[in-house]
Design brief:
- The relative contact order is 0.08.
- The chain is mainly alpha-helical.
- A two-stranded antiparallel ribbon has the order 1-2.
- The chain has 2 domains: 65 residues, no CATH class; 50 residues, Zinc/RING finger domain, C3HC4 (zinc finger) (Herpes Virus-1), CATH 3.30.40.10.
- The longest helix has 30 residues.
- Keywords: Metal-binding, Zinc, Zinc-finger.
Length: 120
Amino acid sequence: GYAALKKRLNGVRVDLHQVAQANENLTGNGSYRNMSVAELEVLETTLEGGLAKIREAMRQQYRDVVEGERDTCVVCLHEKVSIVLLPCRHRVLCATCAVRVHQCPVDRMDITDRFSTFGM
């Protein structure tokens, strides 16, 4: 009846408060001074795990482009690769980014010339 629903509602409110607190902690908006050492250690582990996943995803995207598994610009990660850089001959930039970049993003060699490529 009514008492059971009220009890359930209070439980949901407690759960919501805990989720909101955890979200504040994860986004950096929480008050760390009021947390216990154990809570801070759990938060640190969670954040380090998330950061490791982000770093690995970034490394994998870069590897995919460099290894030719994808045909996406390594600078903007949006446009298709269409420029060969000289003298190194790396093909990792779109036309828009190639104009703005003065060193090859792969080997950091100074770019002396660029030419467009056309693919399927």
